[in-house]
């Protein structure tokens, strides 16, 4: 059996992670026909079937799963060698993709990542704002910010920062709405929140902390919820770090209700020795903590 070449393994990993020839090819900027030929060549060289093909896509066979584990080790070794040659933090270059909940992605990461790139002009940073947890094992991102630490998989996590949330509403809404002197008065108000069956992490179920009132307006996006509150649709439990971007809003009943949550930076365990990602993670941690404190008015 011939020893596979890294270039073929790279194509194989892209298809395995994307579960599709076309999506795998897109990630590598190769057309699907070329990707298909490369996979066929690899299967012939190894004399095994690597994928089970179906209308749903390409799923790894047992032989494919074994090869994927070996290929990821090779990939990590090559990335390490590239970073060592580049000089680590002093020459932090290349593309880094960060996944994050949309509140963090909209109100924290743009300025944080811009400041990191200003110090390291060779970096290209991509922010993926999704209302779900990214699959790092499939390399949907190099690292992800989450609201809970991972409980399974070959992942590592570090706590980035605590952040706070309060009830908020626009001043126009409060001027026209019924009196609001206690949490009991919420029953007479319009409430904005998450779509209950699309809450992907229990830490985001904010409304359960106040008895789970019925929502009049709901979205899987924290930014949409905040913008509904900005135009006077009702009350929302919003991030304190988003308030400077929404001057129409003010905290409501801050002495009676507040929440504290945390952001975690999650990475694939095999990436811990890749200096480029390690140094970026360190920079991200320091600057996210500072930015949360600044926007919450604690610095």
UniProtKB/TrEMBL annotation:
Keywords: DNA-binding, Transcription, Transcription regulation. One of its GO terms (biological process) is DNA-templated transcription. GO terms for molecular function: DNA-binding transcription factor activity; sequence-specific DNA binding. Pfam families: HTH_1, LysR_substrate. Residues 4-61 form the HTH lysR-type domain. Belongs to the LysR transcriptional regulatory family. This is Transcriptional regulator, LysR family.
